[in-house]
Amino acid sequence: QLQLVESGGDLVQPGGSLTLSCAASDGTLDSYGVGWFRQAPGKDREGVSCVSKRGGYSDYSYSVRGRFTIYRDNANHTVYLEMNNLKPEDTAIYYCAADQKLSLCTGYGGYDSLRTNVYTYWGQGTQVTVSS
Questions:
Q1: CA distance 69 to 121
Q2: CA 25 to mean position of chain CA atoms
Q3: In the structure, what pLDDT confidence band is assigned to residue 40 with cuts at 50, 70 and 90?
């Protein structure tokens, strides 16, 4: 059972930056495609970004495109979400998720890789609060 651990959440002012990390407890994250999701109070969990197994493909939701960057360091078995120009509406619990589908986040699987039902494994989440 893959266990994912997120870190890096914090309180930040509007316009600020944060980088979230997602790691697997057994160091095997490079065998999985990874997605980042977020859930604000009273709202559904929404897909933010994803990256393919080898990092060659990525995708972003419209709301974060141009501000967030996902990348992976397979040597250190970690996936990062760099978040810039943060807005109050980015406030949420951020989750990373993983799945072994080879096509995940490549655009070739015929499915939307920013949907929650695509992923098998989930972390516990890390809180990001954007407020002055």
A1: 21
A2: 17
A3: very high
86 vs 105: CA distance, rounded Å: 24
Strand duo 58-60 + 46-51: pairing:
antiparallel
The answer to whether the CB of 8 falls within 8 A of the CB of 126 is: yes
Distance CA 118, CA 132 (A): 35
**Cα R_g (the chain), whole angstroms:** 14
Contact in structure between 128 and 92 (CB atoms under 8 Å): yes
Cα–Cα distances in angstroms (integers) from residue 47 to residues 13, 66, 102, 132, in the given order: 23, 15, 19, 25
